[in-house]
Amino acid sequence: MSDSSSPSATDETTAPATAASEASVDSPVKLDPISRKGTPAHRTKSRREGAGRRQGMPVQAISLSVPASLAAQWKNYSQEVPRSLVDVMLDAVAATRPRLPVLLRAHQAALREKTRPVSDGTFMRNVPKPKRLEDPYVTMPLRLLATNVDVLDAMVHEMAAESRSQLVVVALTAWLADRRAEEQVYEEQLELEVPEDPFDRP
Questions:
Q1: How many Cβ atoms from other residues are within 10 Å of residue 5's Cβ?
Q2: In this predicted structure, what is the pLDDT of residue 2?
Q3: What is the pLDDT of residues 77-96, one digit of tens each?
Q4: Most CB within 10 Å of its CB: which of 23, 27, 44, 71?
Q5: What does the alpha-carbon distance between residue 85 and residue 46 come to, in Å, rounded to a whole number?
Q6: DSSP bridge pairs for 145
Q7: Smallest Cα–Cα separation from 172: which of 83, 81, 43, 67?
């Protein structure tokens, strides 16, 4: 899993109010790259990220490597809520933060079980076994406030995660599992509350 990021930039530059108003009339609105996807979640700007952009705070583009199955769950949940992919990711990391050290250790232990000893000619080294083709890793490009990227990097260091990607994968996996469990409980409660139809009686 690898992380990459591009140099910091700002989405908006400071200009006189009159010039800004003229520009808004004469030129089309510049869409955020994620909003071009066409889904309600992508068209809905994150309140936290959007507010920072409007204030001219630096925005940083990053990419995360996540299992394809998790990426699909992430996108589906983002569309159902609807909330942006960035918002869902931030919610997951914030909500699972107290549990992340334990979750990360369990995840890393499971990864070690998927390694095998291989000789490099001099030493024996543990290398990852070939990844399962049915769940390859995919790249998720995101744009976050630079300050939030700094927070993620600090958490990676604090919790001994191997990368941003690993931190996010562990957080999203646990958080989305919690959401599915809550939905299942809610559906079961609805089934119990369905009134009995008198015409169904024998």
A1: 15
A2: 56
A3: 999 999 999 999 999 999 99
A4: 71
A5: 9
A6: 59
A7: 67
Structure tokens at 150: 């700094």
Amino acid in the structure at residue 81: V
Please state the separation of Cα 126 from the chain's center in Å. 30
Burial class (CB in 10 A: 0-12, 13-18, 19+), 43: middle
- What's the 3-state SS for the chain? CCCEECCCEECCCCCCHHHHHHHHHHCCCCCCHHHHHCCHHHHCCCHHHHHHHHCCCEEEEEEEEEEHHHHHHHHHHHHHCCCCHHHHHHHHHHHHHHHHHHHHHHHHHHHHCCEEEEECCCCEEEEECCCCCCCCEEEEEEEEEHHHHHHHHHHHHHCCCCCHHHHHHHHHHHHHHHHHHHHHHHHHHHHHHCCCCHHHCC
